[in-house]
Amino acid sequence: xxxxxxxxxxxxxxxxxxxxxxxxxxxxxxxxxxxxxxxxxxxxxxxxxxxxxxxxxxxxxxxxxxxxxxxxxxxxxxxxxxxxxxxxxxxxxxxxxxxxxxxxxxxxxxxxxxxxxxxxxxxxxxxxxxxxxxxxxxxxxxxxxxxxxxxxxxxxxxxxxxxxxxxxxxxxxxxxxxxxxxxxxxxxxxxxxxxxxxxxxxxxxxxxxxxxxxxxxxxxxxxxxxxxxxxxxxxxxxxxx
Length: 241
Hints:
By secondary structure, the chain is mainly β. Helices cover 12% and strands 49% of the residues. The chain contains three helices and 14 strands. The protein has helices at residues 5-24, 103-108, 237-240, and strands at 28-39, 42-53, 58-63, 69-73, 78-83, 88-93, 123-130, 133-139, 147-155, 158-166, 171-182, 187-197, 203-216, 233-234. The chain has a 14-stranded mixed sheet. Strand 12 (187-197) and strand 13 form a beta hairpin. It is globular and about 55 Å long.
């Protein structure tokens, strides 16, 4: 059966459009985040809504605290923190807090083989299988004092455990990634437990829970394109004057 030239062109055009639409879909990720920190028998809880624009690499965090505030972070580590009640805005730039150094960025882009260790200057020194687990070991850069190596453990291709060790082979931090959910284009652990060991023997336990995760092809929430009012005053400007 012969296919006319016009039909071939039409089929190719449909495939190109379908590929383009598929590439564009799922660029907007929103979720609720609950952080609980236990230190010295004191518990601190923080709730926020997180919005990640994968195309613009902008993370908007809406902290539902008192006072309420909104934090916008881009790929350059430029941070704008807006306080609606006082109409004040604060500016910072911290490269380590770039949107490209966040967990949501690594998981949403399936960069789970190192979860940012490469960006921090770590180098892979070994990789082995221990039963059902795939285990990698990373050496810290010389400029990073205190940490010597990091061990990562994977199950079914996803990280389930990280362990930070000091020069004296003492464990400094443990991180557990649990309750994975599949969102078609990526998988995300909806519970992360982190234990940081202090020199005095105490520890800080942090638990992060993600919920109501939504992936959309459109910016269906105002926080994806959140604009700080142009008349917002510099933070603490009133106290300085």
